[in-house]
């Protein structure tokens, strides 16, 4: 099955109980048992719910894994996955990960005795230097947020396997439409489904997929124990959004490419970060491991004041956090999504005060380009 077909026919597309072509919202917390301890697959909705289950089977098939799990947010998914670690374990993390991932690792997991080192995972030498005897996992985000750095997934998987480490990949930016990390050897994929998978800025959700069933069972055990599950309404809404993922990703990408090329040739713009540009440092790698470059672009206008001028003048780019939805969004990571990262660290990473991030929506390309042109004048 090709991807666009899988989006429609993957998982459990038809309700097995009624034949409904849209799996219904099973709004039930508990289920009648035929005898004490004998149920029909569902006993309590924290443990399992038919609507959530259909979503979990869909993401499992899209990522090509053994088990899919749906959570109340991307962070709930990441928290559950990182709960596979024990006190005393060490974790390697991509240096410019999503701000919330940085926060949970440095402010929450650290209190449980889980230590982390942030490394530039685009450089294998950095990994060798940072790995410790207590290291248990490598957490990679690729492409990264907001600088669109690309990590070689096959190389990271080989490196992790050699050392017996789990490779966890945050695939939020790529989505399974463009890249499937499990196929390159990752053990677990996580998503903020709030972004492209949902695609309409109307649901907060997280997903995780494991390559093997045993790890999936362990993860489900923690999910059920912790309880950060996705409700049935949101599971339904997410599935509805995912059906058009292919159409949307192609539209996002076409707009993003046009915007990146326009910005790269604009005198008021210093750096443009987009893996689809031939001068992006990992352009060839991105081409090799993904079927597309995505819809996210970052660019530097030099100062916070200039960034503010652009934000004030744009008409079709909504100033908001988040990304991946049908409407174009614009943000200044240093003061918004990445404000929880200390300024010094931000500057080292290249997340300057003048850095603007765009999530290209699916509006008309010419309108978006004209809008950026007038806002950069
Ligand atoms: C938004 C985001 C998250 C967190 O997901 P939530 O759904 O907001 O909890 C994690 N990783 C990346 C790359 C994100 O963009």
UniProtKB/TrEMBL annotation:
Keywords for the protein's UniProt record, in alphabetical order: Pyridoxal phosphate
SUPFAM superfamilies: PLP-dependent transferases
InterPro entries in the cross-refs: Cys/Met-Metab_PyrdxlP-dep_enz, Cys_met_metab_PP, PyrdxlP-dep_Trfase, PyrdxlP-dep_Trfase_major, PyrdxlP-dep_Trfase_small
Pfam family, one: Cys_Met_Meta_PP
Named cofactor requirement(s): pyridoxal 5'-phosphate
NCBIfam families documented for this protein: PRK07671.1
Family listed: Belongs to the trans-sulfuration enzymes family.
Protein name (Swiss-Prot/TrEMBL): Bifunctional cystathionine gamma-lyase/homocysteine desulfhydrase
Source organism (scientific name): Paenibacillus thailandensis
Lineage: Bacteria, Bacillati, Bacillota, Bacilli, Bacillales
